[in-house]
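Appendix B, Record 12. Input sequence as logged:
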Amino acid sequence: MKSRVFNVKLLLLGLLVMGLSGCASLSEEECKVADWQDIGRRDGEKGEKTDRFYNHVKACSEYGIKPDRNLYNQGRETGLKAYCTPDNGRRMGESGRSYGRVCPKGLERGFLAQYKIGKKIYGLKSEIRSLSNEIARVEKSMDDPKTNRVDQVKLRYKFKELTKKKSDKERDLALAENQSPAPITGNSGGNSYRSTPPSASDLAK
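Logged structural output:
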């Protein structure tokens, strides 16, 4: 019995070690041949936060390798320029992904303006899917011969109510998909977008 318990504990320990090693941001080989500027660029293009660098530090320290922070930051700045575009902001919002406030001030306004529109589109599509599912359930109950007349009346009313609500959401979606933030001229003379910062709920996943 004790042997069995010991074996289980040993197995769990092995799985834990494997899990922890799987969380490392870089492998030993990647640390050895790392181009820190390129790694920074790739992290920037993904919108990774600054603490991503410390994950690399932790991963490579196991192999006695110290990442070059200056090169990493140079690369990350380049990557963020590709990430922090209005078009990418729209894609991020429509996919329902969160934004980690990583964009430089000069790029953030345009990014956020489109991100906010994208998040609105994402939310409306989610609501429409939920309404469609609910309508389908109501229709199924209406077609059920076991449903009595009183319930049929209630279901017809609910069906009409849900259909109207879905139609309203679809109209709102069409308007949102065609929405563009009004361009304004920033202090630097370049084009930006008039937009209020998104709320906490806007930035939530």
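The mean pLDDT is 84.
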